[in-house]
Write a structure and sequence with these properties.
By secondary structure, this protein is of the alpha+beta class. The chain is 27% helix and 34% strand.
Amino acid sequence: MQNTVKILSLCVVLFASFNLQAQSSAGNRSTTSTLDDSEAKEKARGYVFVAAKKDDQPNDPYRSQVFTATTGGTATLTLNIPLWHSVKQPYVTFENLTKGTYQRFTTWPGEATYRTTTVTLQAGDQYRLTASIQPNPSDPNDDTDEDVLATLSW
C-alpha cells in the first residue's frame, strides 16, 4: 500500500512538472517565430504535374496546367518522355504566358527518357506546363499506355 502511494505521488509530481514546463514554453517567442518562418516557406513552395497518354481525350485536363508563380527562382522540371516518333510526337512544353516565351522538351536517340532539368520562374508571371503524345493509327499493336509525364516543383 505504501509503495502504491509513493508511485502515485511520484506520478502526480512528474505530471505537474511536465505541465508547468509546457506552459512556460508556450509563451516562448523564438519557438513561435520559427514556426511562422517555416510556415511562410511552405506557402512559397509549389508543385505542378501533367500527364498525357495516347488514348486520352484531346482536351484532357491533366495534359495541361496553367499556374501563377508565387515566388521567383529556380524550379526543378522532371521529365519522362519516350523517344521522338514522327507520328506520336511526344513532348513537354513549358511556357511563360506573361512574356510569350516557351521551351519544348523532346527525347532524341541517345538521350535519357527520364531526366531532370531546371527552369527559372519569375514571381507573378503566369505559366503553362503541357504534356503531349499522339496515338499511332497505322500500328494496331501500338502501346496505348505509353505516356508523357512532367513534374515542376519549387
